[in-house]
Amino acid sequence: MTDSPSRAANARTRATGLRLLDAHNLTAAYYTPEGNRVVAVDDVSISINEGEVLGIAGESGCGKSTLGAILSLTAREPLVVEGGTLEVDGKQQRLGPRAKVQRTWRGSVVSLLPQGAMNSISPTMRVRDLVFDVMRAHDRGVKRSEALDRARDRFEELGLPARALDAYPHQLSGGMKQRVVTVISTLLNPRLLIADEPTSALDVSSQKALIDMLLQMLDNKIMSGVVFITHDLPVLRTVSNRIAVMYAGKIAEIGDAEQIASEPRHPYSAALLGSVLVPEPGFRNKRVKGIPGSPPNLLNPPSGCRFHPRCGLAMDVCTKEEPPEVGDVLRFSSCFWTQQNPGTPVPLDRVIPSEEATMVETDRELADQLAGAEEGAR
Ligand SMILES: Nc1ncnc2c1ncn2[C@@H]1O[C@H](COP(=O)(O)OP(=O)(O)OP(=O)(O)O)[C@@H](O)[C@H]1O
Fold it and tell me: ABC transporter domain spans which residues (predicted)?
C-alpha cells in the first residue's frame, strides 16, 4: 500500500492527549470441549487517547482478535471474559462471567467491525435492510425511514454513493462492501471502533480508500478512536498513532508508532519488525525471514517471559519471573533486558542469532511502502 505523506502525518496529529478508554486487567479464556482453559488474553491493560488509532500487531494466535472481542463486548462461547474493567468518559463497564453488559454500551460506546464482515452479509438482504436491522437492534422504536435517512446522510458525508443502499452485497465490489459495512457499524457514533483485519482482504487501492475513510470519520468525530488489528505491519505503521505488540496473550510493548518501528525496546517487537525490514541503515534492503520457532500453545505457556524460548537475549530470570513493565501506561516494554539496558537499542542480531536468521532481499513493493510510510511520518 502506498501512502501520501499528509495522510500519515495527519494521523499522528489527530490524537488530543485526552483519555478515551482505560482498560484494566482484561482476561479471557476459551473453554475447549475437553474442558481445557486456553487463556488467550492474560491480564492486559491498555489506554487509548481521543482521536487516536491504536494498532494491534503480533503473530497469528497471539490474542489480537480476542482482545478486540473483549473491548467490543462481543465475546461469545467458547470464549469467556473472566475479568477486567472498561472505562470510557468516566463511566465503567465491569467485565466477568457475572457482570451485566450495559445495553447502551454495545454499538454506542464501543462497536466492532469484525474480521470478514463483508462476507457475512446475507446475500438476500439489500444494504438498506441491514441498516434497518442494525439500527433497530439498538432502538426498537426506530422507523425504517429514519434509519435510512441517517444512513443516506452518512454515506453522502463520507462520499459513498447513496444508491449503494439499494444494492445487494454481490452487486458491490469488495472495497465498497467493506466501506459500507464500516459505515453501518458506526451509525450509532460509537466512541471507539474496533476494526479487526479491516484491510486484509482488499487490494491496495481499496485499502487506501478504507483507511482514508476511517481517518475522515475520526476527523468528523463520527467516532473518537480506533483500535486497528492487522498482520500488515506497513499498513499499521501508516495508520496508527501508537502500536501495541502482542505476544502469547500479553502486551510485549506499546508506544508511539514511529518509536516502535524505529527504536523497538522489546526483543519480540524488534524481531517482528525485523521480519519486515531490518532497521540498521546498512541492511535497508534486507529482512529477516520470519522469527525462528513459533508462538507457544496458550494451553500451557512457558513460565516467566513467554518469549524467552525464542529470545537470544533471554537471561535466567526471564525463564522464571513475569517481566516488569518498563515505562508508563502509554509507552512500555515488558522485558527484563529492557529494564537492565535502558536507552540501549535492541541488538536484533543477538535476538535472532545469525545462524538462525535467514536474510532475504526485501521485495521492491515492500521497500517502497515502508519508504512512503517513513516519508509520511516526517
Ligand atoms: N475456539 C477456540 N478454542 C480454543 N482456543 C482458541 C479458540 N479460538 C482461539 N483460540 C486460541 O486463542 C488464541 C488467540 O486467538 P486469536 O484469534 O485471538 O489470535 P489472533 O492474534 O487474532 O490470531 P489471527 O491473527 O490468526 O486472527 C490462539 O492461540 C488460539 O489457539
Answer: 18-273
Per run of 10 residues, the mean pLDDT along the chain (length 378 residues) is 46 74 97 95 95 94 96 95 94 93 88 83 90 88 93 96 94 93 94 95 92 95 96 87 96 93 92 66 54 90 96 96 92 96 89 62 54 50
CA 40 – ligand 1 centroid, Å: 7
Number of domains in the chain: 2
Ligand 1 pocket, residue 323 CB under 6 Å: no
- C-alpha of residue 115 to centroid of ligand 1, in Å: 13
In this structure, which residue's CA is closest to atom 25 in ligand 1? 60
- Residues for the chain: how many in total? 378
**pTM for this model (two decimals):** 0.89
Neighbours of 364 (CB within 10 A): 9
Q: Is the CB of 230 under 6 A from ligand 1?
A: no
DSSP-H helix ranges across the chain: 5-13, 64-71, 127-138, 144-157, 174-184, 204-219, 233-239, 257-262, 267-274, 336-340, 348-351, 364-377
Q: Rounded to whole angstroms, how far apart are CA atoms 171 and 145?
A: 23
- Given ligand 1 and candidates 66, 82, 194, which is best to mutate, with the most ligand atoms within 8 Å of its CB? 66
The pLDDT, as a whole number, for residue 13 is 64
ipTM for this prediction:
0.98
- Is residue 207 situated within a structural domain? no
- Is 177 inside any structural domain? yes
Give distance in angstroms: CA of 38 to centre of ligand 1.
9
**Ligand 1 atom 31: residue of nearest CA:** 61
What is the DSSP pairing of strand 52-57 with strand 225-229? parallel
Name the domain boundary from 189, 204, 237.
Answer: 189
Residue 273's domain spans which residues?
A: 264-377
Domain endpoint, select from 145, 170, 189: 189
